[in-house]
């Protein structure tokens, strides 16, 4: 997963280089939207802007790219959390849900999904 995430960050960096007028993530008007169960699309900045929404990997890729490009945190990286659960897609079998956040160089975590509308459930 980390390799896929780094690939998305690199695609987002390329997008930002090619489109320097891109708004900052938190000023873009984009909102968090969870993808349907069993579906995962890794969307770059252009796709997220077009849809006006993204899930955790889409938003984290964008945020890390802008932190690295601006020099605010060149060492920012993705950090995955795993949540074991019962999975309806697998007919009640076990599966794992992953959520990704930004891990800043100083160890702090930043969650663009929460900032852009994700609701925590019990």
Could you walk me through the main structural features you see in this protein, from its secondary elements to its overall organization?
- It is a single chain.
- A 3-stranded antiparallel β-sheet has the order 3-4-5, with helices on one face.
- With 122 residues, the chain is of the alpha+beta class.
- Strand 3 (77-87) and strand 4 (93-103) form a beta hairpin.
- Helix 1 crosses helix 3.
- It is built from 4 helices and 5 strands; from the N terminus they run H-E-H-E-H-E-E-E-H.
- The radius of gyration is 15 Å and the shape is globular.
Keyphrases for this structure?
122 residues; alpha+beta; three-stranded antiparallel beta sheet; 5 strands; 35% helix
Number of strands: 5
Mean pLDDT, to the nearest integer, reads 90
Q: Which percent range fits the helix content?
A: 25-40%
The main sheet comes to: 3 strands, antiparallel
First CA to last CA: what distance? 25 Å
Q: Over all CA atoms, what is the radius of gyration?
A: 15 Å
Order of helices and strands: HEHEHEEEH
Q: Give the overall shape.
A: globular
Structural class: alpha+beta
Q: How do you describe this structure in short?
A:
With 122 residues, the protein is an alpha+beta fold. It is built from 4 helices and 5 strands.
Q: How are the SSEs ordered, and which strands pair?
A:
Elements: H1 2-18, E1 31-32, H2 45-51, E2 53-54, H3 56-70, E3 77-87, E4 93-103, E5 109-110, H4 112-115
Parallel strand pairs: 1-2
Antiparallel strand pairs: 3-4, 4-5
């Amino acid at each position: 997963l980390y390799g896929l995430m780094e690939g998305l960050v690199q695609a987002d960096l390329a997008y930002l280089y090619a489109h320097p007028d891109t708004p900052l993530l938190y000023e873009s008007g984009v909102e968090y939207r969870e993808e349907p169960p069993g579906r995962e699309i890794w969307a770059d900045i252009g796709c997220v802007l077009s849809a006006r929404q993204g899930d955790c990997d889409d938003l984290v890729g964008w945020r890390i790219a802008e932190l690295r490009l601006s020099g605010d945190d060149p060492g920012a990286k993705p950090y995955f959390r795993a949540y074991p659960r019962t999975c309806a897609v697998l007919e009640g079998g076990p599966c794992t849900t992953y959520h990704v956040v930004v891990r800043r160089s100083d160890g702090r975590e930043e969650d663009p999904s929460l900032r852009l509308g994700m609701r925590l459930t019990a």
